């Protein structure tokens, strides 16, 4: 499997019914790191005038790259239409968006083979393959959250102007209903696990929810493309454990979160580096010391267990 950060691992091709897209030239891991053409906070700025100003500040070549991007909002506000169609958030909770000449050509799939992530340390967007990708395969990321199809397909239609017909959305009705049920259950479990009062008052139930969520994720994503979800899940399990003084389980969960982050974000991601620190020294987390209900030191992890026994 090739590993690189430049433009030698893929090529831009015309994709039937999609326009342009990126296709792998060889079997790849890290696909691309790219700096934005510009960033903008659409909530704080008058978008059309602000985008025009940003584009005018670019070189002629970069101006052409921006205007060549797809616009799902045709009309008099061409510049803001292109921005709204293509901008990616600079981090999961960020309201600041960024546009890229190449990354913005990547098409959507509800069961993607790649993951996009903003790296605060390098001020760039990264694309990583989350499962094995063969030469000739189109590189695809999710435009919507891993939600039930009726939710994400409505969002894709309103925001990007297309009816999704990816491999997941094209499943037979019976199989699609099973996927719907699994994704709805993942959402329910995620909300329950994230409830602060349960973390403190019902940690055993919260960890049981984590275990069920791990099982449902494995069923829904058998090809191994769920590393972003797994990274979040195992960090939640880490927080539950360390809140109650269980350094052994906390360290084990942090290691799994770290491995998942490496896959979808790379070793140089600040979030990945933070998980590595927590893996090595879980007691530095702010929740350590709140409770000693499950007090166990890091070196008390059971030895000689197989994978299933260790999980249990």
Automatic annotation (TrEMBL):
Lineage top rank: taxon: Eukaryota
Signal peptide: none
Record CDD domains: SET_SMYD
Residues of the SET domain: 8-144
Gene3D superfamilies assigned to the protein according to its UniProt record, in alphabetical order: SET domain (2.170.270.10), Tetratricopeptide repeat domain (1.25.40.10)
PROSITE patterns, A to Z: SET
Pfam assignment, any one: SET
The protein's name: SET domain-containing protein
Biological source species: Clathrospora elynae
